[in-house]
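Troubleshooting: if your tokenizer reports a length mismatch, compare against these two reference records.
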Amino acid sequence: MVPEDVLGKAWNALGGVYDPELCLDVVSLGLVYDVREEDGTVVVEMTLTTPGCPVSEHLPEVARLAVQDAVGLGAPVEVRVVWEPPWTPAMMSEDAAGILGFPRR
């Protein structure tokens, strides 16, 4: 069982993972759908802006390493890239949307 504070650490670590093209973190961009524990493993479900995203191989690994560093060696970390629901700009935080020039909600 992974303690609840470990999941909080994982979320915080993901807030420091930046999309290199958009220069915003993956949490603000709405790319992280879930962080949970499954059988002692910290599981991160995230998506990318498009299936052909140039960082599709790199960004999930950066996210995994950031979470692993934050939670330590006590729990393995798995990042799953999912495509449902598909990402839309509406998933961004208001601040991220404003920075990228999208209308604020």
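Reference record two:
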Amino acid sequence: MSKEDDALLVDEDQDIPDKLYFRIGEVAELVGVESHVLRYWEGEFKMRPHRSSSGQRLYRKRDISRFLKIKRLLHTQGFTIAGARKALMPKEGEEQGGDGNLPVDLEKLREVVERVARVRVELNQLRRALQTLDASVGSR
């Protein structure tokens, strides 16, 4: 393997800055392709980046890792789009839901768990307030 090939085999966690969201220009620079290529890959690999309130694409580290894998498959290993798509499909038992059909987005799942915990705290506070109110009305 040549040094050029080694350079293309980038570790998926290469010097990616530690922040939550990245704009398309930042991702294009990190991955080493033009932004229109990222938009094309989004469609081909059924990726849906988060959108800002103004509609701008916002990517996470896992999206960048996926783009790096796609680039490696297409540019270094010579896969076709269809072949790369197939290679990126989750394998048996790999990050799938309990029924084996639905992929699990662990980050979104954590967000939902945190949201449910906050709602539970608020509901308990409301219940205590109602009990206090009920007690004060009952004592009249």
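Descriptive notes for reference record two:
- Residues 90 and 96 are 8 Å apart (CA to CA).
- The longest strand covers residues 57-59.
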